[in-house]
Design goal:
25 strands, binds iron/sulfur cluster, alpha/beta, five-stranded parallel sheet, binds flavin mononucleotide
Length: 634
């Protein structure tokens, strides 16, 4: 394939719309990629094609990622749907490839094992006949794909795909032709590559490989390079795509902001030294400067960027034209994944509410601009102000604090959240460029809002800290987590963090305190830690907390705080427990909607709206999506 530059978009868009689902979903999927192709990306590997998985017995219900029984290549209309994707990518000038996926584990595996401490389901062990069936399915799928004009095919041998489970000594304990020696562990992938190449001779064929499994008993960097060089020596791969991470731990394969950008690109460099074919690196390349450094350092021939493209579909064009400061940064929340896979919500990106709505185009300009006052410059207010101004409204935003950002500004104080500050700086520049008037340190009252005389008022005043009704909560050594992050309150020594929020707040605060040398115990009444933090993100904060000596207690609620102790009770049995020798207690209890102003304005003669945490405290993606919906209606 001839590439116009070195930027590849690895798979990530299926959550925007299933290319083999409803017509509307397929159209959303195609529009997503077309927009990014038109922006100037060289190579889009945006089509996930699951392998037909009908080696299960009748009545067995596969679960988990990749548990599709009927592979799309066996469904009617497959070719037309693939062509729609290919045409969309080609229309923008990029080359188009697809990834063949057979996410293993549930139900299949080489030996009934998963390299996964967070999942105890035991998978079915494939026999030789079942393996032969699956190899044939890869061949069939490749042939169907090749007939569509697709440029390339990538095998998904990473992220606990069945192929990785066969390659790995941790999960492949077979003693037949598919296991027992290095060569035997390689044989399934080699057979599949052979059949794919034979059936799709015009396609570029590559392998996405976990560069180093980073798991006890798994293959290491040398082992991964040995796999890649052996396949190259047999003429089976045109490129190798290096990634790091797994489905559940730390690092996850969708690395959060706890890891520095491109932290493992040096591994790709080792592959590049050993191989003649091109090497791609993907993994938290969240900025064109990072991508350029990878290429300049010779770590990879091509750089993959996924989430950065959710955050800004025009990234390539902006980078190419030197408008780097206009790029909306991905802040690594992983809500793009977790909203869908944890909560079953629609796809959405924290910082870019227009992601996934490419078909609709930008919000239209208004014919009759209104005078809009946004009260509160947190994520909801900032996004609303910018979108409304982009539509042509005359916008003013008031913020009671001396700085913009709301809770994002507070969270940005934790070192791992530095990208949050970049996002706020981006929003600030955006508002300035749009001519939005920003008044900082300006508390709003009913009287001041009405005196200002705007046509529309949007109240995005955020949330105040929630305080649990626990005896002793008023003691002087009990402080708010927000105040700790801002440096307004200090605790030292043995610290109990009381968690009453299901996302990142308690983990961020506990990690912050533990890394300062405190002896931290994080206490949840829920049965799990960070119930809404999905598996792709939970490993990193827990690893950080544990490495700093922090402890976690679940299923316990605080029933009394004493000057030097916290009394807990098991939430089900009521059995008491006491944490002794406590020097400080920190509340990480989320927020309560700060909606007083909204209620005060409801009976006034003004068009008033409420959004963000002021309606109900949620995450950034909720706030920015509400901003989008309101801006679309103004
Ligand atoms: C929503 C989403 C879906 C993804 N789906 C796939 C997939 O189907 N196959 C795959 O190999 N990687 C998949 N990934 C991983 C990305 O391709 C990429 O390796 C990962 O996000 C790290 O790169 P980034 O930091 O540039 O986002 C997905 C990532 C996201 C965020
Ligand atoms: S949801 Fe978060 S991680 Fe995903 S692309 Fe948007 S900012 Fe990045």
């Amino acid at each position: 394939m001839q590439l116009r530059n070195r930027i590849m978009l690895p798979p990530h868009g299926r959550l925007v719309g299933d290319p083999f689902g409803s017509d509307a979903a397929a159209a959303r999927h195609a529009a997503y990629w077309e927009r990014r192709s038109r922006s100037g990306a060289a190579w889009i590997c945006g089509l996930n094609v699951f392998i037909d998985n009908q080696v299960v017995i009748p009545g067995f219900e596969p679960s988990g990622l990749g548990a599709t029984e009927r592979g799309p290549a066996r469904r009617p209309g497959f070719g037309a749907r693939v062509r729609r994707y290919v045409d969309a990518v080609h229309a923008g000038g990029a080359v188009a490839s697809a990834q063949l996926i057979l996410q293993g584990g549930m139900p299949h595996s080489p030996s009934g094992l998963l390299a996964n401490h967070a999942d105890n389901q035991v998978p079915h062990v494939l026999d030789a006949r079942e393996i032969a069936h699956l190899v044939a399915e890869y061949g069939h799928t490749a042939a169907e794909l090749a007939a569509t004009g697709l440029d390339g095919i990538e095998l998904h041998a990473n992220h606990e795909d069945l192929l990785q489970l066969f390659l790995s000594p941790a999960t492949n304990h077979r003693d037949d032709a598919y296991g027992g020696s290095f060569e035997a562990r390689l044989s399934l992938v080699a057979e599949i590559l052979e059949v794919v190449r034979a059936n799709a001779p015009a396609c570029t064929v590559g392998l996405r490989l976990n560069a180093d499994e980073l798991f006890e008993g798994g293959y290491d960097l040398e082992g991964g390079i040995r796999i890649a060089t052996a396949l190259e020596a047999r003429g089976l791969v045109d490129y190798v795509h290096c990634v790091v991470g797994n489905n559940w731990g730390d690092p996850s394969y969708v690395q959060t902001h706890h890891h520095r950008p491109a932290a493992w690109s040096w591994m790709a460099a080792r592959y590049r030294e050993a191989l003649a074919v091109p090497v791609i690196y993907s993994g938290r390349v969240d900025d064109p400067g990072v991508a350029a450094t990878i290429v300049d350092q010779g770590h990879a021939d091509v750089v993959g960027m996924a989430r950065a493209m959710f955050a800004d579909g025009d990234l390539v064009e902006k980078a190419a034209s030197g408008r780097l400061h206009e790029i909306r940064p991905c802040i690594g929340t992983n809500d793009c994944l977790h909203r869908v896979v944890v909560e079953g919500l629609r796809f959405g990106c924290s910082v870019n509410p227009a992601a996934g709505r490419e078909q609709d185009g930008p919000l239209p300009s208004v014919e009759a601009p209104a005078r809009l006052l946004v009260v509160g410059a947190g994520p909801a207010g900032l996004e609303l102000a910018a979108l409304a101004a982009e539509r042509g409204h005359e916008v003013e935003i008031w913020e009671r604090e001396p700085e913009i950002g709301g809770q994002v500004r507070v969270a940005a104080r934790a070192p791992e959240n530095a990208r949050y500050a970049d996002y706020l700086a981006y929003q600030h520049r955006r508002l300035t460029d749009l001519g939005v008037r920003l008044r900082l340190g300006a508390p709003a009252t009913r009287a001041s809002v009405l005196a200002a005389g705007h046509d529309v008022v949007a109240v995005a005043t955020g949330a105040r800290p929630r305080r649990p009704a626990v005896p002793g909560v008023e003691l002087p050594h009990v402080v708010e987590g927000r105040a700790v992050l801002l440096g307004e309150a200090r605790v030292h020594g043995r610290v109990v963090v009381l968690a009453m929020e299901d996302h990142m707040q308690p983990l961020t605060i506990a990690g912050f305190l533990a890394s300062q040398g405190n002896d931290v115990t994080l206490v949840y009444a829920t049965r799990t830690v960070g119930a809404l933090v999905g598996k792709y993100s939970i490993g990193a904060p827990l690893a950080k907390l544990s490495a700093a000596g922090g402890e976690v207690e679940v299923l316990h609620r605080a029933v009394a705080i004493l000057p030097d102790a916290v009394h807990l009770q098991h939430v089900y049995s009521g059995r008491p427990r006491t944490l002794e020798g406590v020097d400080g207690v920190v509340l990480a209890c989320g927020g309560v909607a700060e909606s007083t102003l909204y209620h005060e304005l409801r009976d006034a003669d003004v068009d008033v709206h409420v959004l963000g945490d002021a309606y109900a405290p949620r995450r950034i993606s909720f706030a920015t999506r509400q901003a989008y919906e309101l801006a679309a209606r103004l």
